[in-house]
């Protein structure tokens, strides 16, 4: 546990790292923005900027799961460490109507403790997805519709929320993420603002799932916080970047300790085969999703480390030609 806490605290102080809390379809993200003033050094598992903040209150009972997923773009991949709890310990209140919770005494910043917290009623398993406001006009609308679903026909509360841009607060059994920026939509040009932001995607919410099927979370465990260390091939805004060997090796160490054995073993075996010049025609493709991801990412990562060649191109044609099992590069999905 001490090592995990150290890894997470170091991540709090890495401006290239990202964080999230939420579910499959409702998620709050915390990221630094290049050019903003540096955040204060985190001595505990709390970090914040003028745009948002994260706080991890406890690691009791946590199982860390490190993993890499396939990107639709064949020259890169995504990576993360999920902090998981057993399902009974992870579940939140799952309210399905707008519900006032009172003043937010647990707010990360003192200045926000007198503002009022409302559960949006998204009924998600491991997150109470909330808004926080002291705006009198918005409070009047919210209180008039307390106890109603935000998705009821004719409910004006959702429109009022989108117009007022209150803080969003994602609460889990491990802590919270707060987002102070505007909600992505017409007022932001149809895109989420850079840095901390939220996604609420009704189509995905209806699935009632805790995470993407491409995320190798062990059966019976639920991800309650996501840590995204500096990616060796992608920048903060998802842009391509030159291969960062140090960032790659740092995450490989976490993967070796906390990653799925089937995935890491497949990568290791493929790298050994490529290193010995073995052709792909004798390789047996794994039948499991996690094994196939290990095979495909091993090829991609070998190419980024060692450059292209006829051999790696042959492996790519044989095993990395389709889009199956690839995840969108958006943690809201």
Report on the structure:
This protein has 333 residues and is α+β, with helices and mostly antiparallel strands. It has nine helices and 13 strands. It has helices spanning 2-12, 87-90, 136-144, 157-164, 202-205, 245-258, 261-275, 289-306, 310-319; strands at residues 18-22, 26-31, 46-49, 52-56, 63-70, 77-86, 99-103, 116-119, 128-133, 167-172, 175-179, 197-200, 221-228. It has a seven-stranded antiparallel beta sheet. Helix 7 crosses helix 8 (289-306) and helix 8 (289-306) packs antiparallel against helix 9 (310-319). The longest helix is centred in the last third of the chain and has 18 residues, at 289-306. It is elongated and about 70 Å long. The protein starts with a helix and ends in a 14-residue tail after the last helix. The mean pLDDT is 93.
Describe the structure in brief.
The chain has 333 residues and is an alpha+beta fold.
Sheet with most strands: strand arrangement: 3-4-11-10-9-8-7
Q: What characterizes the major β-sheet?
A: 7 strands, antiparallel
Distance between the amino and carboxyl termini: 29 Å
The general outline is elongated
**DSSP strand content:** 15-25%
- Which ranges are low-confidence, i.e. pLDDT below 50, for 5 or more consecutive residues? none
**Backbone structural class:** alpha+beta
Number of strands: 13
Oligomer: single chain
Relative helix content: 25-40%
Order of SSEs: HEEEEEEHEEEHHEEEHEHHHH
Query: How many DSSP helices?
Result: 9
Mean pLDDT: 93
Q: If you compute it from the alpha carbons, what radius of gyration comes out, rounded to the nearest whole angstrom?
A: 21 Å
């Amino acid at each position: 546990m001490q090592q995990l806490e150290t890894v997470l605290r170091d991540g709090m102080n890495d401006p290239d790292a990202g964080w999230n809390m939420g579910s499959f379809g409702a998620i709050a993200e915390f990221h630094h923005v290049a050019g903003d003033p540096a955040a204060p050094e985190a001595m505990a598992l709390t970090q914040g900027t003028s745009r948002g903040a994260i706080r991890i209150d406890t690691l009791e009972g946590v199982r860390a799961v490190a993993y890499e997923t396939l990107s639709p773009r064949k020259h890169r991949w995504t990576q993360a460490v999920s902090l998981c709890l057993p399902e009974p310990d992870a579940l939140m209140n799952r309210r399905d109507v707008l519900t006032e919770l009172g003043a937010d005494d647990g707010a990360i910043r003192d200045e926000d403790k007198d503002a009022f917290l409302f559960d949006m009623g998204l009924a998600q398993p491991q997150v109470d997805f909330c808004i926080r406001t002291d705006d009198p006009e918005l409070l009047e609308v919210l209180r008039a519709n307390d106890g109603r679903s935000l998705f009821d026909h004719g409910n004006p509360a959702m429109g009022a929320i989108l117009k007022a841009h209150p803080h969003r607060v994602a609460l889990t059994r491990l802590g919270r993420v707060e987002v102070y920026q505007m909600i992505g939509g017409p007022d932001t040009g149809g895109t989420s603002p850079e840095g901390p932001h939220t996604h609420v995607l009704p189509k995905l919410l209806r699935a009632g799932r805790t995470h993407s099927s491409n995320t190798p979370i062990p059966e019976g465990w639920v991800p309650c916080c996501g840590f995204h260390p500096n990616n060796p091939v992608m920048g903060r805004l998802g842009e391509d970047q030159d291969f960062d060997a140090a960032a790659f090796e740092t995450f490989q160490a976490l993967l070796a300790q906390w990653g799925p054995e089937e995935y890491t073993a497949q990568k290791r075996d493929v790298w050994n085969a490529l290193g010995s010049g073995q052709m792909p025609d004798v390789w047996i493709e794994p039948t499991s999703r996690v094994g196939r991801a290990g095979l495909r990412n091993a090829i991609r990562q070998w190419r980024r480390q060692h450059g292209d060649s006829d051999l790696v191109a042959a492996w790519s044609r044989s095993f990395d030609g389709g889009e199956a099992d690839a995840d969108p590069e958006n943690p809201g999905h």
